[in-house]
């Protein structure tokens, strides 16, 4: 039996009827349909950041995720794929989206396929997805699909937007039809530098994982540096 794929949508739109949520929903639905045509079941979890805005701000100030933010991160950690969608303000991605991303452990999305998407009031912002979202997810060591998506007001009535959504969903489905992304993470996990006690399950560490055979740790325990 084929394992069900879990797609998590990060939606930084601030209203329930935002164009960002609408675009993210279309991408997610097309991805489910494409996977379903290949005989692969999939589910979608919508992670709306708007209702979490205050909690995200508190988490940034304190340096520790609050309960609701920790729950959101846990849902993201369980994703086989991600649709990341943000509105564009003043030629940049949403501050809300970036603030949430700043709370994500660097290990959380290693080798996870991602569709990058953004919406804005003018076509002048079309490169934001590749100029700002792609480097962000590359830093997180995720696997952004080749086709990024941007929708300005005039795009909603164009068949070209539907074609681009279908292409991006197809690329996401191609990655999810195999276990290659998970295999990449598994085969190379030990070669990555991990944060101590990180949010990612495989990055969890305790006192027994600390390397005491370093100059810093030897000095900290009263011994000489090499």
Description:
This protein is α/β, with parallel strands linked by helices and 226 residues long. The protein folds into two domains: 5-193, 3-Layer(aba) Sandwich (Rossmann fold); 195-226, no CATH class. Helix content is 41%, strand content 16%. The chain contains eight helices and seven strands. Strands 1, 2, 3, 4, 5, 6 and 7 form a seven-stranded mixed β-sheet that branches. The N and C termini lie far apart (55 Å).
What coarse outline follows from CA principal-axis ratios?
Answer: globular
Which CATH class of the largest domain is shown? Alpha Beta
Named CATH topology of the largest domain: Rossmann fold
One letter per element, helices H and strands E, the order comes to EHEHHEEHEHEEHHH
How many structural domains are formed by the residues?
2
CATH superfamily of the largest domain: Flavodoxin domain
Spans of at least 5 consecutive residues with low confidence: none
Number of strands: 7
Helix content: 40-55%
Kindly report the average pLDDT value: 89
Strand content: 15-25%
Major beta sheet, specifics? 7 strands, mixed
Q: Kindly, what is the distance between the CA atoms of the first and last residues, rounded to a whole number of angstroms?
A: 55 Å
Sequence-ordered SSE layout with sheet pairings:
Blueprint: E1 5-11, H1 19-37, E2 42-48, H2 53-62, H3 67-77, E3 81-89, E4 92-93, H4 95-102, E5 113-119, H5 128-139, E6 143-144, E7 149-151, H6 159-176, H7 180-188, H8 215-220
Parallel strand pairs: 1-2, 1-3, 3-5, 5-6, 5-7
Antiparallel strand pairs: 3-4
Helix pairs in contact: 1-6, 2-4
